[in-house]
Amino acid sequence: MVVDTHLTAVSPVTLSIVIPMYNEVEGIDVLFERLNTLISDMDDLCEVVFVDDGSHDGTWQYLLQKHSLHFETQYIRLSRNFGKEAAMTAGLESVRGEAVILLDADLQDPPELIPEMLAKWREGFDVVNMKRRKRHGETWFKRFSAACFYKLMNWLSDTPVHENVGDFRLLSRQVVDHINAMPERNRFMKGILSWPGFAQATIEFDRHSRQCGDTKWNYGSLIGLAMDGITSFSFKPLRLATYSGVTIGVFAFVYGLWIMTKTLVFGEAVAGYASIMVTQLFLAGVQLLAIGLIGEYVGRVFVEVKQRPIFIVAQAYQQHRSDKPFSV
Ligand code: UDP
Ligand code: MG
User: Does the keyword Cell membrane apply (predicted)?
Assistant: First the structure.
């Protein structure tokens, strides 16, 4: 019999919940209350990792006053606002749990579903995707643009992202380790979280409106995120630019032949201002679009080669379930 001597050390923490927070002070009490009620019913050791993404409304100061008898806590403060993607990356790098759940601070994704997610993980799934059935509190335009984005992304990308699955999902330790090993600076998390693959399960749920405060995204930042998603996970836009160049080139050649023949047979006429203008403007548009596209990729290469850190941690504390002083 072969005895495996490489026993993997299993963390004492079963579940880690990562919560990125940007100016969420109003919701902290309810968040703690809901987590406390939920976790007090669970037998597993849980930790909650709060990542303060450079809030300026007192979120950090208020967070440090809170502690729980039911779960361990890690408090991480980034040196400025790096964005939700970077905040989640910071959280994932410091979790200790065997299973990890990403949760929004505004309780749009109900923590009460966590036991169901854990049950799927115990069945052997490495990733439990939470699919939004209804998206309460979002305008029809946001829902429509989100639907268009998922369609476009999945058409263009080589690593499809799950439609209507946000960042709220469970990841096994193994998947988290692979994600932490991904070195890219452009952290489009929906793509990064889907990329490693592994056994996937999906649970559907109704997404609620924010319990308080406003969304931290505007259309500008959402378009930026969509561009990040598409360019970080696909070369297809560049390929499309090549294809359209080839197609236009073929048409231009055929059209050129036709014009030459016409001129030789019927002589030269000076008419044709409209067609020249239309062709000229069309080609100028296509060229600018292609240059812009190349620029998007070059810009991202520029960010990657600089190798700057994705985030900077200004302060970090850990607190155990008992009311002990912080350990750094
Ligand atoms: N968030 C963050 N950094 C940011 C923006 C948002 O950490 O720069 C956090 C925010 O505090 C919340 C989560 O990301 O916990 C989701 O943000 P929001 O509710 O604004 O997004 P939406 O639900 O509208 O997509
Ligand atoms: Mg939200």
Answer: yes
The full DSSP string for 140-194 is: HHHHHHHHHHHHHHHHH-SSPPPTTEEEEEEEEHHHHHHHHT---SS--HHHHHH
Q: Which atom of ligand 1 is nearest to the CA of 53?
A: 7
- Residue 135: predicted pLDDT: 67
- Judge if the beta carbon of residue 244 lies within 6 A of ligand 1: no
Output the residue whose Cα is nearest ligand 1's atom 22. Answer: 215
| C-beta 108 within 6 A of ligand 1 | yes
pLDDT of residue 316: 86
Alpha carbon nearest to ligand 1 atom 2, residue:
84
Which range is most confident: 59-63, 162-166, 191-195, 225-229? Answer: 59-63
What pLDDT, in 10s, does the model give residues 120-131? 999 999 999 999
Neighbours of 8 (CB within 10 A): 7
Ligand nearest the Cα atom of residue 21: 1
The H or E element containing residue 317 is strand 313-319
pLDDT score at 295: 87
Give the H or E element holding residue 73. strand 72-78
Q: For residue 271, report the distance from its CA to the centre of ligand 2, in Å.
A: 59
For ligand 1, whether the C-beta of 113 sits within 6 Å is: no
| C-beta of 22 in contact with ligand 1 (< 6 A) | yes
User: Could you report the per-residue pLDDT of 166-221, keeping only the tens digit for each?
Assistant: 899 999 999 999 999 998 888 888 888 888 888 889 999 888 777 677 777 777 77
Q: Residue of the nearest CA to atom 19 in ligand 1?
A: 215
Contact present, 21 and 104 (Cβ < 8 Å): no
Does residue 217 line the site of ligand 1, with CB under 6 A?
A: yes
Among residues 60, 70, 101, the alpha carbon closest in space to that of 316 is found at 60
HSE-CB for 153 with a 13 A CA cutoff: 25
Which residue is it, tokens 């299973």? Answer: 99
CA–CA dist 74, 300 (Å, integer): 32
Taking the centre of ligand 1 as the mean of its atom positions, its distance from the CA of residue 106, in whole angstroms, is 8
Mean predicted confidence (pLDDT) in 137-145: 78
